[in-house]
């Protein structure tokens, strides 16, 4: 089947199977910030904005992409520059696998006017998993990005 949608402000048309996941199609298109961590919508590594809402692309089937507006981290380089720099500065990146998902979550939290208190931020990060950092440096990087 053919899908037409907007990905990172570009009109895209592609062929896909009805049971194919958005995660796989986006990676095939070169959006390598979208990663498969769990494949069950539990880790946040595959986070994308879908019609303005942050979702896990491993749970989105390609037919749902028809006429949608999709934004990956590749499409938010300018908007996330401060967050990305603070992740590096605060040591919030170790292996880096989860980092794009955390940056997407942080960007969404900040854009939605999230509170600058640590407890609220940790609650907002609940859907993202990191196996390396222990989270505190991630929290510190995001709080610093809110200054």
Provide the descriptors you would attach to this structure in a database record.
single chain, 147 residues, alpha+beta, 5 strands, 31% helix
How would you state the average pLDDT, rounded? 97
What is the ordering of alpha helices and beta strands? EEHEEEHHHH
Biggest sheet, spatial arrangement of strands: 2-1-5-3-4
Largest sheet: 5 strands, mixed
Low-confidence stretches: none
Oligomer: single chain
Count of DSSP-assigned helices: 5
Radius of gyration: 15 Å
Instruction: Count every beta strand, where a strand is a DSSP E run of 2 or more residues.
Output: 5
Structural class: alpha+beta
Helix content: 25-40%
Describe the structure.
The chain has 147 residues and is α+β, with helices and mostly antiparallel strands. 31% of the residues lie in helices and 16% in strands. The chain has five helices and five strands. The protein has a five-stranded mixed beta sheet with strand order 2-1-5-3-4, covered by helices on one side. Helix 2 crosses helix 5.
In brief:
The chain is α+β, with helices and mostly antiparallel strands and 147 residues long. 31% of the residues lie in helices and 16% in strands. A five-stranded mixed sheet has the order 2-1-5-3-4, with helices on one face.
Strand and helix layout:
Blueprint: E1 2-7, E2 10-15, H1 22-28, E3 47-50, E4 53-56, E5 69-71, H2 81-89, H3 99-111, H4 118-124, H5 136-145
Helix pairs in contact: 2-5
């Amino acid at each position: 089947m053919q899908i037409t949608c907007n990905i990172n402000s570009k009109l895209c048309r592609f062929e896909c199977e009805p049971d194919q996941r958005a995660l796989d199609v986006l990676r095939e298109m070169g959006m390598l910030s979208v990663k498969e961590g769990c494949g069950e919508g539990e880790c946040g590594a595959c986070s994308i904005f879908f019609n303005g809402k942050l979702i896990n692309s491993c749970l989105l089937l390609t037919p749902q992409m028809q006429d949608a507006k999709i934004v990956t981290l590749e499409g938010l380089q300018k908007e996330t520059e401060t967050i990305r720099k603070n992740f590096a500065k605060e040591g919030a990146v170790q292996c880096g696998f989860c980092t794009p998902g955390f940056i997407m979550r942080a960007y969404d939290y900040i854009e939605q006017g999230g509170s600058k208190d640590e407890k609220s931020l940790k609650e907002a990060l609940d859907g993202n998993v990191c196996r390396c950092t222990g989270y505190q440096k991630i929290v510190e990087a995001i709080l610093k990005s809110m200054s």
